[in-house]
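Final report, results section. Input specification for complex C-07:
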Amino acid sequence: MPLLLCHSPKGGVGTSFIAAQLAILLAQRGHEVTALDFTYQDALKLYFGLLPAQRLPDMASHSGEATVVSGVELLSAHELGRDPAFARRLAEQGGASFAGERIYIADVAAGDRDTKDLLFPHALLHICPLHPRPGSLAALPMVQPGTPTIELEKTVFVLNHLDDTHRFSRHSHVFLRELVGDRLIGTVRRDEAVNEAAAMFEPISRFAPTSVALADLARLAVAVEQRAGLARAAETEA
Amino acid sequence: MRTDTTSLLQRLGQRDFRYREFYDAFADMELWPIFEALLADERVVGKPMSLLAKKEAALPVEEGRRAAAPPIVPPAPSPPQDAGLFTRYADPMPAPERPGEDLRGFLKNLSSRNQGG
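Structure output:
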């Protein structure tokens, strides 16, 4: 089953947040999901309600009990991303590297282009979160160097922190919609409840069940499922 | 007033509140310099088409080429049942079926409007 690669060329746009929420929502929709934290910051777990001091099992040496939260298996993969043997195995196994029924969601830090380039060829979908901010938009040429951004076949975009009360935010939305068309697969509106839920180590669904961000994320999960062909796979299994 | 707003007011036990819908028609959108810079960046939009390529693109589509047409984009996913009150606010904007196809027209429209004042 597929690898969904979450990476943005600009940091601080909510990539870990989007990766975590997609993992939780896809698990709720009946998929087996593993979330892989390839980042040094180790912040993915925060969105699952885990404490900073709690350590995730390492994917490279994982053999014991799994850490499963909200139906998602959580693994740290930071060391694995730097293991030459892992790169060799990926190269040797090609498309079989992520075979099976389980969906893998990889959270890769913006500056870690080596890991992004390592995983990109094996990803079914590359999910690129953006902010409606000049700093994030200015990084659009760097989404996949060597290929014009509008021609990236398996890259889809998510506009996070959208705020319709701000003019540039609205205009960025229109601009991106025109630029990448239906590959802008979702928007997530800015909602302070997201921060507050993370600070409380609680899922948004419990902390703020009426959050606008939660409704947007639910739509995004459906869009990712359809785009990646996961809905068909789920129906077949059923 | 929209029905969902009326419903919210009823639930809150109020008759009115300050309400404003933020929306920009495409025609009201500004060409921010950063948008212009991105639309002129080959790393984003690719290389501009040559005159010959433009002429070829303008030719009527032959039968044989119709078969190679891009797949039909599936309809946008319907919102989840529990999306609630705010679902309507998040209705996605209509997306161009072929991203990039009208990009230069988009830039041209914005440029001409800005030049026009």
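Chain B has six helices and no strands. Residues 103-115 of chain B form the longest helix (13 residues). This concludes the modelling results for the funded period.
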